[in-house]
Amino acid sequence: MPTDIEIAQAATLQPIGAVAARLGIPEEAVVPYGRTKAKLSLQGLVGQPGRQPGKLVLVSAISPTPAGEGKTTTVVGLGDALNRIGQKAIVCLREPSLGPVFGMKGGAAGGGRAQVVPMEDINLHFTGDFHAVAAAHNLLSALIDNHIHHGNALGLDVRRITWKRVVDLNDRALRDITVGLGGPANGYPREDGFDIVVASEVMAILCLAESLADLKRRLGAIVVGYTHERKAVHARDLKAHGAMAALLRDAVQPNLVQTLENNPALIHGGPFANIAQGCNSVIATRAGLQLAVVVTEAGFGADLGAEKFIDIKCRISGLRPNAVVLVATVRALKYQGGVAVAELEHENLAALQAGFVNLERHLRNVREVFGLPCVVAINHRNTDTAAEIAQLQAQVAALGAQAVVARHWAEGGAGAEELAHAVMALLAQPAAPMRMAYADADPLWEKVRQVAIKVYGAADATADPKVRARVAELQAEGHGHLPVCIAKTPYSFSSDASLRGAPSGHLLHVREVRLAAGAGFVVMVCGDVMTMPGLPKVPSAEHIDVTDDGRIIGLF
Question: Is 153 exposed, middle or buried (0-12, 13-18, 19+ CB in 10 A)?
Answer without folding.
Answer: exposed
